[in-house]
Design a protein that fits this description.
It is a single chain. The chain has 488 residues and is of the alpha/beta class. The protein has 17 helices and 20 strands. The strands form 3 sheets. A 9-stranded mixed sheet has the order 7-8-6-9-10-11-12-13-14, sandwiched between helices. Strand 4, helix 3 and strand 5 form a beta-alpha-beta unit. The longest helix is centred in the C-terminal third of the chain and has 19 residues. The mean pLDDT is 91.
């Protein structure tokens, strides 16, 4: 397919579904290309009304309170990632013969640099957990190589803004982009063909959106379609390798595994505390290239959790697929600093360590977090999103000193604890106001002994009590701060 140019969108009647960050970004970008843009959204809140007024001042039509009716004359629908495939608007589009795509698809179609230089390569990262950490590690490694790069996509920076903004004001176009992609975004990006990509892991998540685990996995697997150099998979998660086997890739594209153990040929792994590469070396049957030490991963933050070592290996694999030198892998990992609320060390008080992993919004993420510590007082609960907790509790029971439950669906975790960890003390806080976090931290501190870790790893979404997981993590840190102020 010939890559469209910005001029191809001029005069088109395009409907943008959703008045969120990506929807507003897409609407402005497409209007800037000369399209006639209508934004539709079923909501009508004060915040949405304010956003609508801003867009209308820029000549963009906004229709609130009706997200189901296809505007007359629509030639293309560009959806925000969260809109479900069975939304009435998309049924109307299908009936009218109108394509539905996402903002990532539009960015891919417009990826050619405005200067006429070759388009920046896309290195894609997806998975149930670890995407943001891995894509930021990858961007740090690429930058250490001297490449002009940035982390974009589901990480919070709309990719369409980056693609259309490159080369402006004399800035040189990007050499390569580190692209975080959600299953939603991949569902709506049929033309995407990355240079190399990774599926970090697969566990049930967003099944209410996708309809089944099979459909969720299939959308994740789209990231491998058409890869030209490497499909990177998790040796410990066979489902990711299965997705590589099923993908239709370019001739010569290789399957590259990463493992926390000793790597085989065409794998990256760990040997005696060293990250090593047996994939991108001349004689991978007999040679291995040292890349970095485990201690180079977020130095100064203590021993990295196993899942962050895995994230570093995945990032290194993508970077090596792009030709990055070993020294740049080491330097990039050393320069990387984890974001807040991702295994974030908050304090050490009276021999007890307090860790904020509010980003652990599902059972898979919480399992990885719990596996990183030996003796834990676990703060958990929130919105379960259809999850079950038996397997998580079974795997983690031996590590639990105690559990403090918060949030709307805490009973589901309490019942799993009763079945699989009946001797572990449980405090069930029958409240869902934001002040519950302070009480939760106080109760966790009461249960903890010197050498223990009080771990916020909720295994649930936050919206029953907090605006987002960031606010939940901030509440945890504030509550720990209250302990410090009171006792010290």
């Amino acid at each position: 397919m010939t890559t469209p140019s910005p001029a191809d969108f001029a005069g088109q009647h395009i409907t943008v579904a959703g008045l969120g960050v990506s929807g507003i970004s897409a609407a402005r970008a497409l209007a800037g290309l000369g399209a006639h843009v209508t934004v539709v959204d079923g909501g009508d809140s004060e915040k949405q009304q304010a956003a609508a007024r801003e867009l209308e001042a820029e000549g963009i039509t906004v229709r609130l309170g009706d997200g189901a009716t296809l505007p007359a004359g629509t030639e293309l629908v560009v959806t925000s990632p969260g809109w479900k495939p069975d939304s009435p608007l998309f049924a109307a589009a299908a009936a009218a013969g109108v394509d539905v795509v996402g903002d990532v698809e539009i960015a891919w179609r417009l990826r050619e640099a405005p200067s006429g230089q070759p388009a920046a390569a896309w290195l894609g990262v997806t998975g149930t957990n670890g995407k943001t950490t891995t894509v930021r590690m990858l961007a740090s490694i690429l930058a250490a190589e001297g490449l002009h790069t940035t982390a974009v996509g589901n990480i919070g920076t709309p990719i369409i803004d980056v693609v259309l903004g490159q080369g402006k004001d004399g800035e040189r176009p990007y050499d390569v982009l580190a692209v975080e992609l959600s299953s939603y975004q991949l569902h709506w990006a049929p033309s995407l063909r990355a240079h190399s990509a990774v599926v970090l892991n697969l566990a049930p998540d967003h099944l209410d959106w996708h309809g089944s685990m099979q459909a969720y996995a299939a959308d994740k697997g789209r990231i491998y379609e058409g890869n030209t150099v490497a499909c990177v998979y998790n040796v410990a998660d066979k489902a990711t390798e299965d997705l590589v086997r099923e993908a239709d890739v370019e001739e010569g594209c290789r399957a590259i595994g990463f493992t926390l153990g000793t790597p085989g040929p065409s794998q990256l792994g760990v040997v005696e505390g060293i990250l090593v590469d047996r994939a991108f070396v001349e004689n991978r049957q007999q040679q291995a290239q040292e890349l970095a030490e485990v201690s180079d991963i977020a130095p100064g933050s203590g021993t990295p959790a196993p899942h962050n070592i895995a994230n570093a290996l995945a990032a290194a694999a993508l970077a090596r697929a792009f030709g990055v030198r070993p020294a740049a892998v080491r330097d990039g990992l050393r320069a990387f600093h984890p974001e807040a609320h991702r295994i974030q060390h908050i304090a050490d008080l009276e021999g007890v360590t307090y860790i904020d992993d509010s980003k652990a919004t599902n059972t898979h993420a919480a399992e990885a977090s719990l596996a990183a510590y030996e003796h834990i007082v676990w703060i958990a609960g929130g919105l379960a999103k259809g999850a079950t907790f038996d397997e998580l509790v079974q795997k983690s029971a031996a590590r639990l000193r105690g559990v403090v439950l918060i949030g709307a669906d805490r009973a589901l975790i309490r019942e799993a604890l009763a079945r699989h960890a009946p001797d572990v003390p449980v405090v069930d806080l029958d409240r869902t106001d934001t002040g519950a976090m302070s009480e939760a931290v106080r109760e966790a501190t009461r249960l903890a002994e010197p050498g223990d870790t009080v771990l916020l790893a909720p295994a649930c979404a936050s919206m029953d009590m907090f605006v987002n997981y960031n606010k939940r993590g901030e509440a945890f840190a504030d509550a720990v701060g209250e302990l410090t102020a009171r006792d010290h």
